[in-house]
Design a protein that fits this description.
By secondary structure, the chain is an alpha/beta fold. The protein is built from 14 helices and 13 strands.
Length: about 350
Amino acid sequence: MNRTALIAGATGITGENLAAHLLAKGWGVYGLARRPRPLPGLRPVIADLQDADSVRDALSALDVSHLFICTWARQETEIENVRVNGAMVENLLAALAPAKSLAHAALVTGTKHYLGPFESYGQSTAETPFREDAPRLPGLNFYYTQEDILYAAAQRHGFTWSVHRPHTVIGYALGNAMNMGVTLAVYATICRHTGEPFVFPGSQFQWNALTDVTDARILAHHLEWASTTPAVANQAFNIVNGEIFRWRWLWPQLAEWFGVRAVGPGQVPAPLQGVMRDAGRIWKEIAGQHGLVEEEVEKLASWWHTDADLGREVECVNDMTKSRKAGFEEYQETYLSFVDVFTRLREGRIIPA
């Protein structure tokens, strides 16, 4: 069948990698964003998901078979997260409903489903490894709101759905608010430039705990698989690389790639948000010396999100049994997830060689 995708959040780490994957597989792909970036073959759609009229006007003439919701807007409180991010999903689904062409809608959420929202992040008692049938946590969580809106719309309009719960997503994308791969590349580059050690900024607990991550490319494959495999319709799935690791094992390998000295955490975390307070000036100096294409460090690094992931005091391991039993058997080596991002950043002169 001819498959036409609409990716909401096409400039993000998930959406951009998904667009590249689907285009390579022969899909027609629309990429929705407020400020689309060019990608060969991608048909840009400009809209503000928080504005129902903007979304309706932008999508009214589109014939879309598959919707991929790969975006969210961070707010100051979870009450506002629920209101804003719930409305974004509602606006998308309402705008596509009149065409009656939608066959499947996929929603990307994450492990905050198990860990709780930022206001109470990591304070849950969810059992690890996280499994999809774990009960919801008490209280507000905009992921739950988005899911409920999706379920209700699917029932009303007769399309199938899937929910995808990645852990920390590692992949190539610029200007993304949740991008550990690029953030660590910038941090390591600054350490090499200043001669400072590459210090793990998180907690002793996270340094020693088992954890996992999600390569943006394996997430893209998972999204296509679930949206085109009828036997797995109307289900939620965890999606991670399939490899469990400890940061005390991976950190020295990342340091070696950049030629910097790895140092473990102190007795208390040293968050990058504070350590990198002078990063703007240093990065402009690095960019000038090496002819880099981006001299504004805040357009590359998301210190706060990496601090949240590396500083938490809770184990975070996701079970993949459900996807494996259903036929999704792809695996990604985590070290190579980071190396592939670092290599692309060098090739694009985002970081120096």
